[in-house]
Amino acid sequence: MKTAVVTDSTAYIPKELREKLNIYMIPLSVIFGNETYREEIDISASAFYEEVKVKELPTTSQPPVGQFVSLFEQLANEYDAVISIHLSSGISGTYQGSVTAGNMVEGIDVYSFDSEISCMVQGFYVLEAAEMSAAGKSPQEIMEKLKEMKTSIRAYFMADDLSHLQRGGRLSSAQALIGSLLQVKPLLHFENKVIVPFEKIRTRKKAMKRIVEMLGEDVKNGEPYRAAIIHANREEEAYEWKAELEAQFPNVEFMISYFGPVIGTHLGEGSMGLGWVKR
């Protein structure tokens, strides 16, 4: 049985890696006024962060169901099944779009998976599915493995500027004002599919240190882990952090990723995150 792997652009898996592993991608979009840009296709993360310095904060939109239908119909010519992995259904209707399209398309079995998270941590599921598909595993085996991964996946991120979360409707004005006055760097995470505060920490340095403490707790048994450092236009800082973490945690394989346009719209430039999963 031949199984295709589909995800959306918010997994931020580089194009070369998608092509190498045969991963198909459906883009979400950012909208500046009357101009719509499909992320990872029409606009890169670096170009996006330049745009928001001179323009109003954009809005974001999920892919139309028709785009899923078109892709699934195309895949039906070559594949028997699709594993379609998407960002949390608590912050976007993208997963539901995949489910709806899967029920509309004939000739291929569509297995939609709600990652309940986003960015490269969502990408961990995608990479695993692609590797398993290449090894000839069945869709049922892949879905079982993805469910099992949910038990060890963790991700924490720090918003450098609370105004983006507030303007995007992800945080109340009062919370944003208090945070700014106290210079609080809230640690955020996904809980029950939505972004919620995990802890309030006074400085950026302490917030990042706290994330490292939690990683250390999870990986102290020496088992192999995969982790992603995720940055919003702070590549140099991300590479410095990676060097420190690699020296500290030899059993963890670290990679660098980024908050692209859609997620960057809500978190803002300067945000940093770290996610990990047991190998």
UniProtKB/TrEMBL annotation:
SUPFAM superfamilies: DAK1/DegV-like (SSF82549). Transmembrane segments: none annotated. It comes from the Bacteria. It holds the Pfam family DegV. InterPro entries: DegV, DegV_C, DegV_domain_contain. The keyword Magnesium does not apply. The keyword rRNA-binding does not apply. Keywords: Lipid-binding. It comes from Cytobacillus eiseniae. This is DegV family protein with EDD domain.
